């Protein structure tokens, strides 16, 4: 009844649409965007012109045309009934279109809208696409459904399109390369091979075996159905569902601010054009941001666009040296979220892991590290960073999140000494991940030994037997920001003062040496037969 009443009464429907839209973006900002973009909504919803390049896999020939058709596709799908700026019906149509793509809806529905935009942009650009849109048969005005299959190359193009949408919002008002007529360097797209491979393995299109190390997107192969792709997104990369609404809001926000000046800035200083040199590449940072649903997602999203701030790098074994003591000297006192990345390769060719194949895993914790001989922590997540990306959040059954134990300064006899090293999940002596004291050997066990983190393989072709690997590199990134770094600096300075005080010996605090019991004992040892007067 409410729907029919609002349809017959335009003013009442406008109020309902305004209330719904204000939950996503402020109404004054929307009115400014509507007045400035009226007549050129396709241009307002288009990303800044730029040239894009990729080291691996190569950029498809039609990718730039697809990006250029992104704005017209969104305008035709959602804002087709927008009228003139001074018309109330035009404002109502603008609100309807905005709410269709930006209102809060289930994640599967928002992903379906994104796939519709991708299919429409591909059709306009002449790019290959295996998706089709089927409208509702009853004609009730629903969104319909998207069916079909995505080939590996199409998944890579879809992921790149989503990254460009995030890039245009995180680095707004930029243009670069020859496409936009600017002098900036082409924007370097992140490597998304680990995400494409994750989707294919999840759908069963690629086997989780030795073949994943030599797999390339350009090889092609079996595709992924829309339902399987949706299941993978909801379980691994839920942030993809928010790409469309986030992009439209950022475009309107930029349009309302200054639609002319917004396109006159060069990308020379706003986007990374250099190759990745750290374990935390821009592609891996973006994958982590898609899997998170907290404030750290924005941190990793920014890192995927402009790279991580090198001041946030707390420890790198190739720079600071390997070993738990060197590691602890760099991370001690940091009371904020950290990301630990490990790169290793299998040392022996067993039945369950292939020989000399590099792989990477990571641990994301929202609290600092502490030197304890027991497990501690309130929340953390494990992830496989390459060659396949997986995120394993807490299971909620146990709380054996982190184990970090160094040799005590004052050693005492222990009948059963605790292991020295870094551990995550499992139990003491049977950790799911354990890094030894010298940072030379990494042990990864099957998820059956662990009830803290969710089940899943951290290494391709992982079996039930423990995997021992040689460590190549270790990185620790601090995610707490400048305030947390200042607190760590203050902690280190305070510890340095205490250490210096412990080194100094104030002789004035001691009594007279001639009357001290230490001198009497020394005299007795030097000449025990000497005659001494007994004091009475």
Question: How would you describe the overall organization of this protein?
Answer:
This is TLDc domain-containing protein. The chain is of the alpha+beta class. The protein has helices spanning 2-8, 10-22, 27-37, 41-44, 63-68, 70-78, 88-102, 107-125, 152-170, 193-203, 226-236, 243-257, 282-291, 296-306, 317-320, 324-331, 482-503, 517-526, and strands spanning 52-53, 131-134, 145-150, 174-175, 187-188, 224-225, 265-266, 313-316, 338-346, 358-365, 380-386, 390-392, 403-405, 421-427, 430-436, 441-444, 467-478. The strands form four sheets. Strands 8, 9, 10, 11, 12, 13, 14, 15, 16 and 17 form a ten-stranded antiparallel β-sheet that branches.
Main beta sheet, described? 10 strands, antiparallel
Rg (CA only): 30 Å
Number of domains: 2
Mean pLDDT: 83
Strand content: 15-25%
The CA-CA distance between the termini, in Å, is 111 Å
Give the overall silhouette: elongated
Computed structural class:
alpha+beta
Percentage of helical residues? 25-40%
Report the oligomer: single chain
* Poorly predicted runs of 5 or more residues: 1-7, 172-182, 261-272, 349-353
Number of helices: 18
Number of strands: 17
């Amino acid at each position: 009844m409410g729907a029919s009443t609002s349809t017959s009464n335009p003013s009442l429907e406008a109020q309902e649409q305004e209330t719904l839209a204000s939950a996503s973006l402020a109404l004054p900002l929307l009115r400014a965007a509507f007045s400035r973009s009226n007549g050129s909504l396709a241009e307002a919803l288009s990303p800044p012109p730029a040239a894009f390049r990729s080291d691996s896999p190569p950029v498809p020939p039609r990718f730039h045309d697809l990006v250029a058709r992104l704005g017209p596709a969104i305008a035709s799908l959602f804002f087709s009934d927008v009228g003139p700026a001074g018309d109330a019906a035009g404002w109502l149509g603008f609100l309807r279109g905005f709410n269709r793509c930006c209102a809060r809806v289930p994640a599967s529905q928002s992903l379906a809208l994104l796939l519709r935009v991708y299919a429409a942009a591909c059709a306009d650009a002449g790019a290959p696409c295996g998706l089709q849109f089927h409208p509702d048969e009853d004609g009730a005005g629903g969104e319909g459904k998207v069916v079909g299959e995505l080939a590996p190359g199409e998944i890579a193009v879809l992921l790149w399109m989503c990254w460009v949408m995030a890039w245009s919002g995180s680095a707004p008002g930029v243009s670069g390369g020859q496409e936009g007529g600017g002098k900036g360097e082409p924007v370097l797209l992140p490597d998304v091979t680990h995400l494409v491979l994750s989707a294919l393995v999840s759908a069963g299109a690629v086997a989780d075996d030795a073949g994943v190390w030599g797999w390339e997107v350009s090889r092609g192969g079996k595709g992924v159905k829309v339902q399987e792709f949706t299941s993978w997104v909801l379980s691994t990369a839920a942030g993809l569902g928010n790409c469309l609404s986030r992009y439209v809001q950022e475009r309107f926000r930029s349009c309302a601010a200054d639609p002319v000046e917004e396109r006159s800035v060069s990308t020379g200083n706003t986007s990374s054009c250099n190759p990745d040199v750290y374990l935390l590449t821009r592609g891996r940072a973006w994958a982590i941001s898609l899997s998170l649903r907290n404030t750290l997602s924005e941190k990793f999203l920014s890192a995927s666009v402009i790279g991580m701030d090198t001041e946030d790098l707390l420890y790198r074994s190739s720079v600071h040296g390997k070993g738990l003591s060197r590691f602890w000297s760099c991370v001690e006192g940091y009371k904020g979220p950290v990301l630990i990345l490990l790169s290793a390769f299998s040392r022996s060719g067993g039945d369950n892991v292939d020989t000399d194949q590099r792989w990477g895993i990571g641990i994301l914790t929202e609290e600092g590290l502490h030197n304890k001989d027991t497990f501690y922590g309130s929340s953390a997540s494990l992830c496989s960073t390459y060659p396949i990306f997986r995120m394993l959040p807490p299971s909620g059954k146990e709380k054996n999140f982190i184990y970090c134990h160094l040799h005590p300064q004052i050693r005492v006899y222990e009948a059963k000494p605790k292991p020295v090293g870094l551990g995550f999940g499992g139990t003491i002596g049977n950790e799911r991940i354990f890094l030894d004291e010298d940072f030379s050997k990494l042990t990864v066990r099957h998820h059956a030994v662990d009830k803290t983190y969710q089940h899943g393989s951290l290494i391709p072709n992982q079996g039930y037997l423990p995997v021992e690997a040689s460590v190549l590199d270790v990185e620790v990134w601090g995610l707490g920001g400048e305030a947390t770094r200042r607190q760590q600096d203050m902690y280190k300075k305070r510890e340095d003062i205490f250490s210096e005080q412990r080194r100094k010996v104030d002789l004035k605090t001691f009594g007279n040496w001639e009357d001290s019991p230490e001198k009497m004992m020394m005299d007795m040892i030097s000449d025990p037969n000497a005659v001494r007067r007994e004091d009475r």
